[in-house]
Amino acid sequence: MVYQEHIEVVAGKRSGKACIKNTRITVYDVLGWLATGMSPQEIVEDYPELTLENIKACLAYAAHREHHVVTVAA
Question: Residue 27's closest CA among 54, 67, 1?
C-alpha cells in the first residue's frame, strides 16, 4: 500500500492535517470512525466519495506515523 497515492497534506486545508485526496475528510476522521466500531464498508456507504483503498491508506499512514514516533525511556 502506497498511502501517498491517497493521502495529502495541504497548508490551509483542514489546518494542515492529513486528508484523503480531493476531499476534506481527514485521516483522523476515518480512524475515529473505525475506532467507534464502524466498518470500512459502512464508512464508504456514508461517505461515497471514499473508497475501501482510501480506508486502507489511512491505516497505512497511521502505522507509518506510529513507527516513526520517538519513544522516551522512563
Answer: 54
